[in-house]
Amino acid sequence: MTLYLDQLHGSLADPLLDSMTFLNEITDRHPEAISFAPGRPFEGFFETDRVAEYLDVYVEHLRSERGLMEDQVRSTLFQYGPTKGIVAELIARTLANDEGLAVAPEALVVTVGAQEGMVLVLRALCADRDDVLLVSSPCYVGVTGAARLLDISTVPVPEGDPAAVVNAARALRAEGRHPRALYVVPDFANPSGVSLPTAVRRELLAAARAQGLVVIEDNPYGFFTRTGRTRPTLKALDEHRVVVHLGSFAKTCFPGARLGYVLADQEVVAPDGGVTLLADQLAKLKSMTTVNTPALSQAVIGGLLIRHDFRLRAANAAAVAHYAAGLSTLLAELERTFPAAERAAGLGVSWNQPEGGYFTVLSVPFRADAAAVRRCAEEYGVLWTPMADFYPGGGGEQRLRLSSSSLTVAQVREGVRRLAAFIRAEVG
């Protein structure tokens, strides 16, 4: 049988999906290159023996703290489990310590990474073809890609601009469409590195409430401050249950566990007057997709949380220091390599100053596209990510994203040296 692409779902022909495949392929083709492309944790913190240790800790927790018999322990680890997960109570205790959030375990759904959480939330909230998701622009491609798979329309709004959210929602209603939710990464966002001031967070929540929008807060990078300054999550500021909070253990523990969660404490009223939590409705959807999140992954992360006394901020102290050092080195090397006087003379190179996280955005005076990445990898041995794919409404063609998270300080320095040689050649 021959299948034709134009007869399959339209998302499969979307250049957005091809862009991610391209980066993976070119990375495999140039394994010796220094790569500023992947937004992944530093592997120096991973210890193989810890996986078994954390699993043992969780099993002991089941026996001693929960009082389960051996057949119950075996069933918990090896059988299909509750759709909402088996470690929600442990996650709730961790959120109380790390974020100051008073979370009822029943308001949590443990997911296969935050990506599944996005799909579940979007599917639940957007019921009509005229329902629209607002996204901060530039925007993480995972959420725009998920919306594309679900045939949900997205409308970009400038990052950190509450007035633009209000204007976009009003404009959509004037067209007869339904703005349903706003997706935002308030801390050290992917791809921009931007962190929203607390005052802007409050204004954003007020704007969303006034416009009847659910705020989908994605928070994978919040721990990783470069300056020591931390801000409350949107959920911590949420007084009216406007925010659905997506969390992930990919960056704070390890991505191979593929474990995330959704905090969805909004009340849902049925036609008969019955009231449930949005988390319960998400669990219904999950039961028809992944059925449940693997118990072994939950057990390992659960054991890690127990071992670190339900305090992941403290457990990530070394990682916070590493990412801060890498990001500070990147910014310092860019400043040294492209001094202010040269930039003022018209070089056309500039960058932002993220307060933390993984990402820095560099503006250049040429088209930073896939062809440029290929030239840079082949001739200079360094990789980066084009920014254009992160702009749903277009833009970013002369910007590139640099991620310093997976590199050592020495690799960052050498990578900037190679990147600078490429940029000067392109400018010349």
TrEMBL record:
GO terms for molecular function: pyridoxal phosphate binding; transaminase activity. Keywords: Aminotransferase, Pyridoxal phosphate, Transferase. Pfam families: Aminotran_1_2. It comes from the Bacteria. CDD domains: AAT_like. Transmembrane segments: none annotated. Its cofactor is pyridoxal 5'-phosphate. Residues 74-419 form the Aminotransferase class I/classII large domain. Signal peptide: none annotated. GO terms for biological process: alpha-amino acid metabolic process. SUPFAM superfamilies: PLP-dependent transferases. This is PLP-dependent aminotransferase family protein. It comes from Kitasatospora sp. CMC57.
